[in-house]
Amino acid sequence: MWQFFADNPWFTLFLVIAAGSLFGMVRFGPVKLGAAGVLFVGLLLGALDKDIGPAVPAGLSVFGLALYVYTVGLEAGPAFFRELRPQLAVMLGAIAALVVTAVAVGLLGNKVFGISGPYLAGGFAGIGTTTPGLAAAQASSDDPTEPATGYAIGYPLAVVLTILFVSALAALRHWPARRDPGTGLPAKLVTRTVTVDRPVTWAEVPGVADGRLIASVHQPGGADPRVARGLGALAPGDRVVLVGGPEAVAEGLAALGTEAPDHLLDRRDTVDYRRILLTNPDLAGRTVGELGLGERYGAMATRVRRGDQDLLAHDDLLLQLDDRVRVVMPRTRTTEVTGYLGDTEAKVSEVSAVSMGIGLAAGFLIGIPKLTLGATTLSLGTAAGPLLMAMVLGRLRRTGPLVWVLPTRANLTLRQIGLLVFLACVGLTSGYAFRRDAFSLFGLKLLLVLFIGAVLSYALMVLVARLLGQSRPRTMGLLAGYVGNPAITAYANSRVSDSRINTGYATLFALAILVKIVCIQLIVGL
Hints:
alpha+beta, single chain, 13% strand, 4-stranded antiparallel sheet, 17 strands
């Protein structure tokens, strides 16, 4: 009766995606499986009959993987290169922890329990929750179902153990952070109107020099409000609109005077403000300062909404398509500013086929060369090649007329489609072997090895962060990025409200994927 699924592979594929996505919405304690639910439903259906897996269209999993890693790289690249210098010690420590874990898993699993390299490589990818790592393990193995079995055993183990580690970190009260670089971005931005009660120079106000506080509107004395460009000396009776994190705004209020009873932005007869969608491709990849809003229209950007995060619009902030830029401007120039930035909803989902095609082709190209070391063959392959190329292009953002980055909504959509297709293919093709191997004495041995490897790996990463003086919130983010699971990041944010969790995640996410891919190929070779 299960032959129907083998005879209709496209129906089967999308049935798995639909049912797996529903399963991924089910909450298990503090987390949900998300897209990984598709993998487990695929394994279940693929286990029903040995003919279902071979019927999956050839090459479809590579296509899905390429979409996923390329879009991840475009988003993660800028954060990786930005954090490269200040967080180099942490990155090197994470690399060392991954290598030690890979060696421990390989030697313990093979020499003590007699488990072959492909199973261990897939399991290593599972405790690292790295989908590209699974693809690398399959590409390096003669039987691609063996790494998938290891991955399916290691993945839920990783989620449970990482949550326990994050919970333990969140419960700690004494955690010295002698070398944590900065306090991170504010968790939210606030706007307040202050009445100046003493002569003061704007540049001397706390938070202005380091970009934590900006002014959007200035009303000198009883005059009409105006855009706060080039503020200098402020006099008693002036009113200024402050924008920044709660702490920075509170410091600004204390230095300038008292909060005004009425908000200056509520008066919109001379100065207006609104969020404008950035869809002009000529402006993508440029900084806020390069927009020239002040010189062109006497306006200024104060905030940038990117996804679910509000960013303070300092002059060096790089913009990307689909950003929502909050602009304060003379009321008479609103139409001109809106037209300049674009504000066209239809363009937020457009993808440049030229830049994306060139980027993916270049990624596959650099993935072709191979390096043979004894019995081990190393290559970037179809997982790391597009990922590494996308990280570089994401850092460049644009080259002449070519805009490499994608609008946020388009990026997330393509990423989700690619991941779901890949996981569905892997689950269906590996389900029958998973039924044979996972629920046996062999499966218990592999589970034990992966449990030891996971505890060792996560403990080493936390130890590295502690020794390097990272703060507790950043350590939680670093661990989430090290493991590479956004569900862990969401859980960490639910326990501690601190933007350093997200910046820590971004620091290690892409780097950990690349290092895991290399380690996985070493495990297979060993």
